[in-house]
Amino acid sequence: MISGRPSVGSSRNSRLVNSVRLPVPARPPSNFGRIWLTMGATILLVNLGTTRAPEPEAVREFLREFLSDPMVVDYPEWLWRPVLAKILRSRPHKVAEMYRSIWTEEGNPLERGTERIASALGRHFGVEVHHAYRYGSPSLRERVAWGEVPITLVPLFPQRTGSTTGSIESAIERSSGIEIRHIAPDDPGYIEAAADLFHRSVGNAPPEHLVVSFHGIPLRYDRREGGMYRADCERTFRALLKALAWPEAKATLSYQSRFGPEPWLRPATASVLERLGSSGVRSIAVATPGFVTEGLETLEEIGIRGRKTFLEAGGTRFLRVPVVEAHPRFVRSLATLVEGAKS
Hints:
Number of helices: 12
Shape: globular
CATH class of the largest domain: Alpha Beta
Number of strands: 9
Structural class: alpha/beta
Number of domains: 2
Radius of gyration: 20 Å
Distance between the termini: 33 Å
Mean pLDDT: 88
Order of helices and strands: EEHHHHEHEHEHEHHEHEHEH
Strand order of the largest sheet: 1-5-4-2-3
CATH topology of the largest domain: Rossmann fold
Largest sheet: 5 strands, mixed
CATH architecture of the largest domain: 3-Layer(aba) Sandwich
């Protein structure tokens, strides 16, 4: 996909943003009422966002907002502006085709997955749980601006980096009464859910090799933030292998979705899939625990293009492990996180 993830995200597990409250409009929308937990806070889950439709103009609108964020692309504006203009002319039609290949009768998979997590967590607490997107609608800033109660905010990214967790923090830094709770990269419920989905996918025929793929970021960003993102990915990788009792010699951690000319974290998932297929490995499973909802990167990049790469290189059996979404164990772990206790 086109989503690079440079990073200057905070390494703290929680943060209370204390500053001036954003103004609250006089007539809040009816679908964003004052929902109180027993702890007196609204729960807000935040995902990255996605296009509102699998059409070029909608994709162009999303990319313009996403790629204009300096937390995502940190090049000087004078340098980046003409490049972005070129991207917005050339990429939307191709990306729209990718979205059409994964769009369902229910709509956008990422949007539906985010809603399922919010609904499941809401049923657990017996209250409405809200969701927002850093880019797109409902927007994070819109949700925060309407809020009249304390908010417990959970970014849906177990691995911290600037264009996800860092960008979310940056977007709300002027707001008060918001406590951020980060999902740990080796959170037990998250890992147990991922392991369960792996077992359900492979059944009684385990693959020869397991590829654990995360979204990549430019190498210089990872260095700038002290290797935090890479370390988080490695923590998830090790925890998942331990939960699966899977030998590390038969597993590879890799990074996908490279965009632009500069060096990114390696190895690249596409290169790993080609190498495994051409080296005699006939069956693999690919897990993508860096994503908690299905989307373009999991369904199209891995499920369609990744599958094709491996099979054309000589492989014969390709399994894509679904992401955790509203798996009961993950939802229970989110509830524990929101309540403030360690899972």
